[in-house]
Design brief:
heterodimer, A: about 180 residues, mainly alpha, 3 domains, 2 strands, extended, B: alpha+beta, five-stranded mixed beta sheet, five-stranded antiparallel beta sheet, globular
Chain lengths: ~180, ~600
């Protein structure tokens, strides 16, 4: 067992290296101009001259060769600088710190019902194997599993927000905003 | 189950401000969020809206007008040839408590010129101050003979040697310091040539004309106002600017927070505002990208203003609580543009010859071909089917609402018989007999451009089965590259106004040095600089540039109309449509007025009332 753990641990750096390489290569597939769209507003992209495009590429290091960029990226990651999140519009480390507590809280809230109801349903299904209860539970799980998030989300929104107007909202929002 | 909780969280977050019973707060639910709040970097309307409300410019537009101005931080102004003077108002306080001085104005514009981030809006200031240069780097290269990278080390951001340092110091003295000067209570701008639209460029609504608090700016680590070391403050990354998520303005609102997790900007009224504090004390501008959420909030009265895409408008029409204003002209236009001289190695012109398997490189230098193409596009179908009717036809690329726009000019027409007539005339009937093959590109993801290209290709085939236009989607970089290198025979592109002066469209599209005109090939440049009897011996370029240098709006209008007549006669490209906007807010919101160049809302004039 100890040998196994040690073996896995020794493999870890190799796996991390592989992952970084794959992630980085995926970004490269986009091409430098596509990457540029993440830095410049589409309206100005329409209007920029070729010279200006080069300037922006230079500023963000997009015109350097992939190897140099990879090394630079790994170097800063090793120093704890995960870079700038284009979506979150803040440093990646900060974005993680901001979001992590809420994520954990939500996961915890979600886990207990999942275990409780899930195990109970499972037991019921097993006890009434191939009876109507089993079928019903199976249909319920399959529908639940395959329902697209965005449709499900809209239904929830409609029922609880538009029709019922429930929820002890203030407290949670206040917590999230902090 | 986890899904459910994630959705619940989304729903919870909607209730942050219960505005229904709160007459002090306005919630504006929109799409997206600002790009940056640094006025010299921001170039999008979401950023522009925040900047509009937290900063003051020197002047503002009079209501809905795009050409009349009212004083703002400037009490009055004088234009005398190349110089434009503004008398700066006294007793204005910034949010920091500092008092506005003429120096703040000088500092602001110099910082803009020095900072000049690539891809930003500052090219407009370069155009008026330097004429032929559109960025600091190109000005340095053109005026000193040295490129930026020869002078400044990109790693240390310091001059490479003493000689380089001297060149940069001299550049500052000669070309930056002299552009904006203070004379008592006045600030004087020294332009490269008389440009009447300078006022449009810096008026309220242009982020790049917002006046910064110079003391606060220096405190944050922006340019220290000194000549020595100015180069260190050039071309910063967006996220490196101290003003990325901060403001140092004097406007009616102060920035409380820009919460990027929730795409939410919160403003509060500035109690020390020189025009008196705003009636609405809190403003929340919130990026809620999901339409059904925005709709629910608007219907419940939790949002006062909502962004409503045209295709969803029918869902809320008839709601007695909502005010819906349709038919608002936007300041953008989508056009079909011709390349008069395609590069011979272009893969989009087939054989490159008039043999039925391609088109000659100078295909669109032929007026008959251009006019035939213009008659071949089904404008009405495009507007009805693709834009749900939310578009208008305009005679040329100049949008409705601008100086020089003339309702009497003929608008483009879909007429297959006329198209046939011109196609038969082109190349002495050879084109008609042999036919042609070409590729029309669009950037994938842009449905409107794709549909336009398909409509055009369809009717070409209808006119003559030998006319084969293949519509092909390519990635945006490929599209840009093909345009840049003159490889596309024709293409569909849009233009959103930077400032509401006809020059921003007429020069862009029809001057051979304009942003679009410069891509129409050498043949076009020749044509545009050739003297024309129609203009009494002047060239098209000369006419356009003359109109930009004059101050009398009447005279300018005449020239622009004349230019447009020429454009229509010669078929120099054609506008496909000008999108039309929709405004939706709760009826209790009062004080809104339309102004097509303004980014978002002017909250200072709002209040809420049931009456």
């Amino acid at each position: 067992m100890t040998a196994y753990i040690i073996r896995r641990l020794l493999l870890l750096p190799l796996i991390i290296f592989g992952v970084t390489l794959i992630v980085f290569s995926m970004m490269q597939l986009l091409g430098e101009d596509q990457l540029l769209a993440a830095y410049v507003d589409p309206n100005s992209l329409d209007k920029m001259s070729a010279e200006e495009l080069e300037m922006v590429k230079e500023k963000y290091g997009l015109n350097e060769d992939p190897f140099t960029r990879y090394v630079k990226w790994i170097e800063s990651v090793a120093h704890g600088d995960l870079g700038w999140s284009i979506v979150g519009k803040e440093p990646v480390t900060k974005a993680i710190i901001h979001r992590l507590p809420s994520t954990i809280e939500l996961t915890l809230y979600a886990i207990f019902p999942i275990i409780g109801i899930g195990v109970w349903l499972g037991v019921q299904a097993a006890l009434h194997r191939n009876k109507w209860q089993d079928h019903l539970i199976r249909i319920f799980s399959i529908v639940g599993w395959s329902f697209p998030d965005f449709v499900f989300g809209l239904i929830i929104l409609m029922v609880f927000y538009s029709w019922l107007g429930w929820f002890p909202l203030e407290e949670l929002v206040w917590k999230l905003n902090k | 189950m986890k899904k459910l909780l994630v959705v619940l969280l989304l729903v919870f977050s909607i209730f942050t401000f219960a505005a229904v019973k709160n007459p002090d707060t306005i919630v504006d639910v929109t799409i997206g969020e600002p790009d940056t709040l640094d006025p010299h970097q921001a170039y999008d309307t979401a950023s522009g809206e925040v900047i509009f409300n937290v900063y003051d410019n020197l002047i503002e537009y009079k209501g809905s007008s795009l050409s009349e101005f009212l004083p703002r931080l400037a009490e009055k102004w004088e234009i005398d040839g190349n110089t434009v003077k503004f008398k700066i108002r006294k007793g204005v306080k910034f949010h920091s408590g500092n008092e506005l001085t003429p120096y703040d104005v000088e500092y602001t514009f110099k910082r803009a010129l020095i900072g000049n981030p690539g891809g930003g809006p500052i090219w407009m200031l370069y155009e008026v101050f330097f004429g032929d240069y559109f960025s600091l780097k190109s000005a340095v290269k053109g005026l000193t003979g040295h490129s930026w990278s020869e002078l400044v080390n990109p790693e240390t951001k310091e001059p490479v040697n003493d000689e380089a340092k001297q060149i940069l110091l001299d550049f500052y003295d000669k070309y930056i310091d002299s552009k904006v000067t203070v004379d008592g209570d006045w600030v004087v701008f020294h332009l490269a040539a008389p440009k009447v639209y300078f006022l449009n460029i810096i008026a309220q609504g242009s982020s790049w004309g917002a006046i910064l608090d110079s003391k606060a700016a220096m405190g944050l680590g922006l340019w220290d106002g000194k000549k020595d070391g100015w180069w260190k403050f050039h071309d910063w990354k967006k996220e490196d600017s101290p003003l990325y998520a901060k403001e140092i303005g004097s406007g009616p609102y102060e920035l409380v927070e820009w919460d990027r997790t929730q795409q939410k900007v919160t403003l509060k009224a500035f109690e020390g505002y020189w025009r008196g504090p705003a009636k609405i004390k809190n403003v929340v501008i919130w990026g809620v990208d999901e339409w059904s959420t925005r709709k629910a909030m608007l219907e419940k009265g939790e949002a006062d203003i909502a962004a409503v895409p045209a295709q969803y408008l029918s869902q809320i029409k008839g709601n007695p609580d909502l005010e819906i204003i349709e038919g608002l002209p936007t300041v953008s236009v989508t056009t079909l543009n011709f390349n008069w001289q395609v590069k011979a190695d272009s893969p989009y012109i087939g054989s490159g010859k008039l043999d039925g398997q391609g088109v000659p490189t100078t295909f669109f230098a032929d007026k008959n071909v251009r006019l035939a193409f213009i008659y071949s596009f089904d404008y009405k179908k495009m507007i009805d089917e693709v834009l749900d009717g939310y578009g208008e036809l305009v005679p040329t690329a100049l949008p409705k609402g601008f100086l020089g726009y003339d309702e009497n000019l003929p608008k483009p027409k879909f007429d297959l018989a006329e198209a046939t007539k011109y196609f038969k005339r082109a190349y002495r009937g050879q084109l008609w007999r042999k036919g042609f093959k070409m590729t029309i590109l669009y950037n994938t993801g842009n449905a409107a451009r794709q549909k336009s290209a398909e409509l055009l290709a369809d009717s070409l085939k209808k006119i003559n089965p030998k006319f084969q236009a293949e519509v092909r989607g390519v990635q945006w970089p490929t599209f840009l590259d093909a345009r840049k290198n003159g490889k596309m025979p024709l293409y569909i592109l849009g233009w959103l106004a930077d400032y509401p002066d006809p020059n921003n469209f007429i020069y862009t599209f029809y001057d051979s040095k304009g942003d679009y005109g410069s891509y129409y090939g050498e043949k076009y440049a020749e044509f545009a600089s050739k003297p024309q009897a129609f203009f009494g011996g002047k060239s098209l370029d000369e006419m356009i540039e003359e109109a930009a240098s004059l101050t009398d709006p009447k005279v300018r209008e005449e020239i622009y109309i004349k230019v447009q007549e020429f454009v229509i006669r010669e078929g120099l490209g054609v506008p496909l449509y000008q999108p039309v906007g929709v405004r939706v807010h709760r009826k209790w919101l009062k004080g809104w007025y339309p102004n097509s160049i303004r980014p978002g809302d002017d909250y200072y004039h709002y209040y809420k009332s049931d009456k």
